[in-house]
Structure to design on (470 residues):
């Protein structure tokens, strides 16, 4: 029974550890001065309210986009780097948490030695010249966490794990936004190419008609050259758009990690417009944004590190213990007479360090202040991003109505100018001007639709990926 007393001693001290205090400040979320709701929040009559999940890109109902997103989340190097950092933080947490428990080691040794019979101090009579010694012990060394240094370190490590996971979510959200924006750019170029090809076909027909009229003496050679110039302008426009499309496809290939990517042509105007957030969406929703959560997790870690630094002011207390057997023969190692044990306690208290500990505490507090500022800045940036995206969506939606009216007017003006030209009431320059106006109006409408869809993507990113009905 006496041999068990050291272990009871450790259990008692372990209970003291659990009841011990933890120096340093407990975390409290900093107050923010953000409004309760967004300044640019939509009114209840502007759109239907629906819930949006984290895979918000599926709202575009495009199988190609969904496939690109799946490949990107698997193959993108930035995502893989974020995953590796998350695994590193998990391992660091396990290592920090292990310090809260005793470390138990098994030790074994065997020696065989010969003593000199010619030494200055001769061996006692009957002492063998050659001796053997076998030893086996189970030992432990354990620092008592009276002041909470290890618990604060574990708290900081847990926060760093969360920060790494939120960092991964931020990378994925950013990547998703880049993928969708690049895809919208590609589809916008597709729409412009389709419109330009139709325009080229019309201008080729106009050139043929003008040539026939010139051959019949109705039109002049000037009209023919003007028609040819107008056709060449659109042909060059198509070449430029096709070049831009190839570059956009290369960007998508890079982001998705599929460098043999080939995206078939489609029209941006076929994509649906995703819904906007419901009216009265609270600004507190920003707290679920991954970069904001990451900033807060880093603040929690910095706050806990103050306790780690302050614990150095107090004495560190450690326990050591060994239990086992020692004998000259292996067969006697575990007999009662061979038992050995030892216990010990150590205390280390800093007396003079020339201000080193105080400087480390001040450093930890300064790092906490930096983390507070970073957290508040991330909230403020997020709030601004949401307001910017909301106003852009609203303005591009209103602008689309006017651009559609402009396109309809340009189509009618072109039709009237062609009638007037064929009837001999106007010169061909009037037709060219109407053609140019319609081309510009059509392309502007496509670009505005791209800007409108891009603004919804920015809104999803700004809010953190989605929202629920409220």
């Amino acid at each position: 029974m006496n041999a068990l007393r050291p272990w009871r001693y450790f259990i008692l001290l372990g209970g003291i550890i659990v009841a011990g205090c933890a120096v340093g400040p407990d975390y409290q979320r900093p107050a923010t001065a953000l409004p309760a709701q967004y300044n640019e929040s939509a009114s209840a009559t502007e759109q239907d309210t629906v819930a949006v999940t984290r895979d918000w890109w599926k709202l575009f109902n495009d199988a190609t986009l969904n496939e690109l997103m799946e490949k990107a989340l698997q193959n993108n190097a930035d995502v893989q780097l974020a995953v590796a950092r998350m695994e590193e933080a998990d391992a660091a947490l396990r290592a920090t948490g292990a310090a809260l428990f005793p470390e138990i080691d098994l030790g074994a040794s065997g020696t065989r030695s010969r003593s000199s019979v010619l030494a200055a101090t001769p061996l006692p009579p009957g002492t063998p010249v050659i001796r053997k010694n076998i030893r086996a012990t189970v030992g432990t060394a354990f620092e008592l966490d009276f002041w909470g240094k290890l618990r604060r370190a574990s708290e900081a490590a847990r926060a760093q794990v969360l920060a790494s996971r939120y960092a991964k979510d931020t990378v994925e959200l950013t990547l998703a936004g880049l993928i969708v924006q690049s895809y919208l750019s590609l589809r916008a170029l597709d729409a412009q190419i389709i419109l330009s090809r139709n325009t080229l076909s019309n201008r080729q027909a106009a050139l043929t008609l003008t040539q026939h009229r010139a051959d019949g003496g109705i039109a002049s050679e000037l009209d023919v050259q003007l028609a040819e110039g107008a056709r060449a302008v659109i042909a060059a426009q198509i070449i430029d758009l096709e070049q831009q499309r190839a570059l956009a496809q290369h960007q998508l290939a890079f982001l998705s990690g599929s460098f043999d990517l080939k995206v078939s042509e489609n029209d941006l105007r076929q994509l649906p417009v995703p819904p906007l957030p419901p009216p009265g969406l609270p600004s507190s929703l920003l707290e679920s944004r991954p970069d904001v959560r990451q900033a807060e997790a880093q603040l929690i870690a910095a706050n806990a590190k103050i306790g780690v630094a302050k614990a150095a002011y107090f004495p560190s207390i450690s326990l050591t213990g060994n239990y086992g057997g020692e004998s000259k023969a292996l067969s006697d190692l575990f007999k009662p007479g061979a038992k050995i044990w030892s216990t010990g306690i150590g205390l280390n208290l800093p007396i003079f360090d020339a201000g080193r500990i105080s400087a480390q505490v001040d450093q930890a507090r300064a790092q906490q202040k930096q983390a507070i500022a970073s957290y508040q800045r991330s909230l403020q940036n997020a709030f601004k991003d949401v307001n910017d995206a909301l106003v852009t969506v609203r303005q591009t939606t209103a602008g689309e109505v006017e651009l559609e009216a402009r396109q309809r007017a340009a189509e009618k003006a072109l039709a009237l100018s062609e009638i007037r030209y064929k009837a001999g009431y106007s010169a061909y320059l009037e037709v060219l001007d109407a053609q140019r106006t319609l081309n510009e109006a059509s392309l502007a409408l496509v670009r505005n639709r791209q800007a409108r869809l891009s603004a919804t993507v920015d809104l999803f990113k700004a809010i953190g990926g989605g929202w629920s009905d409220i």
